[in-house]
Automatic annotation (TrEMBL):
GO terms for cellular component: monoatomic ion channel complex; plasma membrane. It catalyses: K(+)(in) = K(+)(out). InterPro entries: Ig_E-set, IRK_C, K_chnl_inward-rec_Kir, K_chnl_inward-rec_Kir3.1, K_chnl_inward-rec_Kir_cyto, Kir_TM. Belongs to the inward rectifier-type potassium channel (TC 1.A.2.1) family. KCNJ3 subfamily. It is a multi-pass membrane protein. It comes from Ciccaba nigrolineata. This is G protein-activated inward rectifier potassium channel 1. The gene is Kcnj3. It is found in: Membrane. GO terms for biological process: potassium ion import across plasma membrane; regulation of monoatomic ion transmembrane transport. Coiled coil: none annotated.
Amino acid sequence: RRERQRFVDKNGRCNVQHGNLGGESSRYLSDLFTTLVDLKWRWNLLIFLLTYTVAWLVMASMWWGIAYLRGDLHRAHDGTYSPCVANVYNFPSAFLFFIETEATIGYGHRYITERCPEGIVLFLFQSLLGSIVDAFLIGCMFIKMSQPKKRAETLMFSHAAVVSQRDGKLCLMFRVGNLRNSHMVSAQIRCKLIKSRQTPEGEFLPLDQCELDVGFGTGADQLFLVSPLTICHEINSKSPFFCLSQRSLRSEQFEIVVILEGIVETTGMTCQARTSYTEDEVLWGHRFLPVMSLEDGFFRVDYSQFHATFEVPTPPYSVKE
């Protein structure tokens, strides 16, 4: 079957782009901090470098401008003259003085004198502006580096979902696992069925979202994810798959979006991992291979069999039939 467009990729990326925002695009500037954090790393680094470069050049130009207006540039080597900033006689020296002041290096060769009120005001302005720029940009980079998006890459989902019987009931199942030894605290899983439908009033809903019950009433959606778990959705009269059979599965067109959320134990930040299963990734009459084995004093997980399935006898009829 030709691969069709997915709503959510297997790696969790949502294939949704916002266009024709018009005047609403100004909302991104009103929340500038979040906008910068959401940008890709190459744009963040470019903005980081450009902001500091422009700020440094502007402030160095202001120090050079004060020295130029006071005539310090022409009398810098006059031992009897008291300049605004000692040993500032051109733009490179003004730039070096700004860097020494901003980075609190203080080599001692260039220093501001008390006979320069405009220099004192500029010094205070530079200190205030530098603190604001550092707090904004460094805070932005820190938040971006500490985002738990990479943690989601060590959360695994099986490549396919299966339909088979469990405890005498027809169930839709898939497998989740955690590759790290650190746990996901308060891990919870949810499933959404994305399918087009038409209402009795004639309204067409192209991407209608329907909740799949994976144990809300029994608490089975709250996971203790220390070893791979098989998530089960019981197909009953309340399930949207009530009329699904092995034959109708070949002609259906739907997508199951799986969302796993939890708190990263090491950082305390909330992490979300996503994946999806289309109708051609649902295997009727299959079951997952066991991956747990008892070793000498511990349980071993064999992740080489994490995605493996095998066929089991399963009636080809729907629950309704």
